[in-house]
């Protein structure tokens, strides 16, 4: 761990961390552009980089992208990222009252505190969890992937059915190529370019960047209102005593929610905000420009990043869409996500932990020093911005294998992503289904081979059994609650008669 921090302060890693965090803040502050889009676009640039430096750059973009969303949420009532939705409820009314500097200062400080707390959990929990995961076999990994997919589908925004449809579609698009067990081609439809399957990078760029470009083009004429930032941000040491308990509680909630596959920073912020409102002596002030609401939302959404990184580097399970892209980055650099990462490439595993702390430090310094100038970037002409992003998308997809087929794949998945969102099918289960399907298939077949084709061997493995029943409970819980709700409604109707 100490070696990772020493390596991080070397000139090149520190430069990559600063560039990544600054880029993330800038992109996150522009409505419509997200951290996942930035990371997907940056992946091609990391091909020739050292794996540790590449992850340092991407972690910086991740932290900066989530934190940068608070600027647009405060000044425009437009969350720069989905994680900043709850921030708009109180930060924007504060800005409208002329307290924009105060709202920005509280949001930045809360984001930094949430990052510090979740980094503590990340640094303490990751190594022992990785050692535990080394005892897992094929059944454990298969049921763990199953649990992640089911939880993501059921807990993502929208209905359970649409979440499952998205996950199944993602798994279906991962099937073309060579069957890993028998070596036969499948679902290539006679296209030689599909022999190796659909590459992860064009799929990610298309699903997130190109689909967002399509939405931006359709709303290109929408004008953004202007709010003056003032001279800077206003926050002091007295706020530690005033908002400390709320921030600590929200940071723990955010880290815990981040640990759960498929929930994400926006749900972490919602849960922390609701909790802060319930325990407050002035709940009626929430949503009218109340400072504790800003602190709760921003602390939790940044803390969820550290929580989500724990299952990513210990078990190879992405907690959200952005973590799925980070797993793609590890795979592109020929690294195996999961517990073996600590054994075979400890400099990368501990480098992620060190980079997360460093990114939070760079974020708070950069935001406090330059937030009034960053805010002006929100008003850049959108036609020029969209054109430049599309150009980078095409170049990034083509540079993967120097073939135009990947560009067509990117454009196709851009259209697919756009229509899925129009149909209210969440993109999270879709992308994570695409990423995890090969792992699930490989582990399931290995498990069946090791048990001579007996699937009931699963129930002789304690961890696998727990993961399986958690998956089934998560899948059936919405139906149980709906049935109980209908029964209560029927009983109330009978009592009135």
What does this protein structure show overall?
The protein has 497 residues and is mainly α. It has one domain. The chain has 19 helices and two strands. The protein has helices at residues 2-8, 11-29, 35-42, 51-75, 87-96, 100-133, 138-155, 160-173, 200-218, 238-259, 265-279, 291-315, 321-332, 340-344, 346-374, 382-401, 405-422, 427-450, 462-496, and strands spanning 177-178, 185-186. A two-stranded antiparallel sheet has the order 1-2. A hairpin with a 6-residue loop joins strand 1 and strand 2 (185-186). The longest helix is centred in the C-terminal third of the chain and has 35 residues, at 462-496. The chain is globular. It starts with a helix and ends with a helix. The model has no long low-confidence stretch (mean pLDDT 80). Pfam families: TctA. The chain crosses the membrane at residues 15-43, 55-76, 103-125, 132-153, 159-178, 251-274, 348-371, 383-400, 458-480. Residues 14-432 form the DUF112 domain.
Strand percentage lies at under 5%
Helix-residue proportion: over 70%
The shape, in one word, is: globular
**From the alpha-carbon coordinates, what is the Rg to the nearest angstrom?**
23 Å
């Amino acid at each position: 761990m100490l070696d990772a921090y020493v390596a991080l302060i070397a000139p090149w890693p520190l430069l990559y961390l600063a560039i990544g965090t600054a880029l993330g803040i800038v992109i996150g502050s522009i409505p419509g552009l997200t951290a996942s889009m930035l990371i997907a676009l940056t992946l091609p640039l990391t091909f020739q980089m050292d794996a540790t430096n590449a992850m340092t750059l991407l972690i910086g973009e991740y932290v900066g992208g989530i934190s940068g969303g608070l600027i647009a949420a405060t000044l425009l009532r437009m969350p720069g990222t989905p994680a900043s939705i709850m921030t708009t409820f109180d930060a924007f009314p504060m800005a409208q009252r002329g307290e924009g500097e105060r709202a920005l200062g509280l949001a930045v400080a809360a984001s930094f505190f949430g990052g510090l707390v979740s980094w503590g959990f990340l640094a303490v929990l990751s190594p022992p969890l990785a050692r535990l995961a080394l005892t897992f076999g094929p059944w454990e990994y298969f049921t763990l992937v199953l649990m992640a997919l089911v939880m993501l589908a059921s807990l993502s925004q929208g209905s359970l059915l649409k979440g499952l449809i998205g996950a199944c579609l993602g798994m279906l698009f991962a099937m073309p190529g060579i069957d890993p067990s028998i070596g036969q081609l499948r679902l290539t439809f006679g296209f030689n370019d599909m022999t190796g399957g659909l590459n992860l990078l064009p799929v990610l760029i298309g699903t997130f960047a190109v689909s967002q470009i399509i939405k931006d083009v359709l709303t290109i004429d929408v004008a953004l209102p202007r709010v003056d930032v003032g001279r800077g941000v206003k926050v002091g040491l007295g706020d530690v005593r005033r908002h400390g308990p709320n921030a600590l509680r929200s940071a723990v909630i955010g880290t815990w929610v981040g640990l759960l596959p498929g929930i994400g920073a926006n749900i972490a912020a919602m849960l922390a905000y609701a909790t802060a409102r319930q325990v407050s002596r002035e709940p009626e002030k929430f949503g009218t420009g109340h400072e504790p609401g800003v602190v709760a939302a921003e602390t939790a959404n940044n803390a969820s990043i550290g929580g989500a990184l724990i299952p990513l580097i210990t078990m190879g399970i992405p907690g959200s869409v952005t973590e799925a892209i980070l797993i793609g980055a590890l795979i592109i650099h020929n690294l195996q996500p999961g517990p073996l990462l600590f054994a075979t490439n400890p400099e990368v595993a501990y480098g992620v932990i060190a980079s997360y702390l460093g990114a939070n430090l760079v974020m708070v310094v950069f935001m406090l020093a330059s937030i009034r100038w960053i805010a002006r970037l929100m008003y850049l002409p959108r036609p020029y911005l969209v054109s430049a992003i599309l150009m980078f998308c095409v170049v990034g997809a083509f540079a993967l294998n120097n073939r135009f087929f990947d560009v067509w794949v990117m454009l196709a998945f851009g259209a697919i992503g756009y229509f899925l969102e129009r149909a209210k099918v969440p993109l999270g289960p879709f992308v994570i289904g695409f990423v995890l399907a090969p792992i699930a298939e490989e582990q399931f077949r290995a498990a069946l081979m090791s048990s001579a084709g007996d699937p009931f061997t699963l129930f002789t493995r304690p961890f696998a059994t727990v993961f399986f029943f958690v998956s089934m409970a998560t899948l059936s819980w919405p139906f149980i609650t709906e049935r109980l709700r209908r029964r209560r409604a029927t009983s109330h109707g009978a009592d009135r008669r």
